[in-house]
Structures are given as C-alpha cells and as structure tokens.
Amino acid sequence: MTTIIEKKKYTYEDYLKAPEDKKYELIEGELIMAPSPIPKHQRISGKIEYELRKFVTENKLGEVFDAPCDVYLDEENVVQPDILFISKERLDIIGEKNIQGAPDLAIEIISESSAYRDMVQKKKLYAVFGVKEYWIVIPEEESIEIYILKDKTCQFYNKYAKDDTLQSPRMKDLNIALKGIF
Questions:
Q1: How far apart are CA 74 and CA 58, in angstroms?
Q2: Fewest CB within 10 A of the end CB: N or C in the chain?
Q3: In CATH, what number is assigned to the domain containing residue 49?
Q4: pLDDT of res. 3
Q5: In angstroms, rounded to a whole number, what is the distance separating the alpha carbons of residues 86 and 90?
Q6: How far apart are CA 108 and CA 146, in angstroms?
Q7: Does 9 have pLDDT greater than 80?
Q8: Is 67 contained in some domain?
Q9: How confident is the model at residue 81 (pLDDT cuts 50, 70, 90)?
C-alpha cells in the first residue's frame, strides 16, 4: 500500500504572514526560507548594483532595486532577486508594497543554499513570466552567465569571467569590467 502525502500549496496571502525577520520566497506554491547572504555575496551584490545603478541613472533608463524587494509574479510565485531593473516604459509595475510583474533584468548571486533554486527553478520561472534578461553570478568561479528570453525560454547568451568585460545583450552600451566586481 502506497501512502501519499499531500504537500500544502502556499499562496501570496500565506507568504505575507511569514516572519519578517527571515527572507522567504514563494516558488510554485512552496514557501522557501533563505539564510542571510554571506559578506562575499553582499560585496559582489553591492558592486554590481553600483555599476548598474550608475548606468541606469546616467542614461535615464528606469529604476534599480535590490533585495529584499518582493516581485509578485502570481499567487504562487513571489521572488526576491538580489538585484533587479525595471525599464522606464514599465515603471507602472512598481506598486506601493511590491513589484507587480516581471522585471526587465533579474540578477541572482549563487550561494550554497540557492544554487538549484537560482539555476533551475528561477530560470524557468523568469522565462515563464517574461524576464527579458537574467544574470546568474557564480562567486566561486568569479563568473557571470547571462540568459535572454527567447521563445518563452531562458536561452544561454554568454558567460563572462573575471578578466572579461560583461556586455548586456538588452541594455545597449552597458559594459562592466568584472575585475572590479570580483
């Protein structure tokens, strides 16, 4: 005899009741707690955010946010990318309490506890909901993989190493020397 255990599907309403002193995400109805990022992660995040924010501000392209910032995709999917960008044409998705829809660019910095979630689950989720560009930062390799939305899937675009200059496929003229990031 097989025993089937039904897993509870969580919703946005459940997510809002989660303790505020911890970082949570809601992916396909599963409530996931993530530990606080380590200092190396924070250092890399700060440097990328600085470069991106400077470029976006100088060129009046939109807005940059960093975690924790809820991105509400639907009732069963609420994520907190490490860094995200919303173009000026889509600023109306910025709500009072969260971002309501897919950002134009989502950036995730891999940690031990988030590797599968960032490289598999979120990549798929971001494609389904229309994130145009997705960066996966891999601190241990000192590299960044870029994926772009094509035919409703996240397609590999390029991988940049520490000695490279990252060039965004969707944000014309955004170039970041990765020596300064890692």
A1: 32
A2: N
A3: 3.90.1570.10
A4: 56
A5: 6
A6: 11
A7: yes
A8: yes
A9: very high
